[in-house]
């Protein structure tokens, strides 16, 4: 009885530890609290409040980027301003933004037809108030990218970021359980056959325990054998 309890507790402990390891919060996890603030569980926050940047594209034509909305101003996060014709072309809106963490931190703006990526790139000298834009380009006709240089992303460990990858953690968890189960049954069976000369079902490690556990679960789910026989007779 003591051995059975010890084995059950050990199995649940292994499953618990595996779950914690596979599904843990990674070193840097971002939860968007506004269109321009990324909150990390380790307080490595990215706060673009107050940032308002301009990148010259041509004579009297510039791209304006303001990550955080300001009360009473336009809903455009990114827009092209033509000073000659006094026109504004909106490219991205605050309500369509999200943070994406992969190899870099990216603010992604989407609408019905276009995607605009603002890639946050490390520059130690681009401290608060000294950020700047660079490398504006059309990757495709519906995909624009620009790089925002800032010191706020310097030193962040993003290799294990879990944005949009929870399924990978579950895959890792179940893969680990399957590998452990395979090693347990195969190695245990080989040891029982070679060391203890067991054959048939007796080769399965702790087969008596597993049979007892199966019968207990079956009894809980299906009732006693008497109840099962009475059910079958109806």
TrEMBL record:
For this protein, the record's InterPro entries field holds: Autophagy-rel_prot_27, Man6P_isomerase_rcpt-bd_dom_sf
GO cellular component: a single term: membrane
Residues crossing the lipid bilayer are: 170-196
Q: Where in the cell is it found?
A: Membrane
Which is one Pfam family of this protein? Answer: ATG27
Entry membrane topology: Single-pass membrane protein
The signal peptide stretch is 1-22
Primary location recorded for the protein, binned into one broad class:
membrane
Q: What keywords sit in the KW lines?
A: Membrane, Receptor, Signal, Transmembrane, Transmembrane helix
Identification of the protein by name: Mannose-6-phosphate receptor binding domain,Autophagy-related protein 27
Record the organism. Cinara cedri
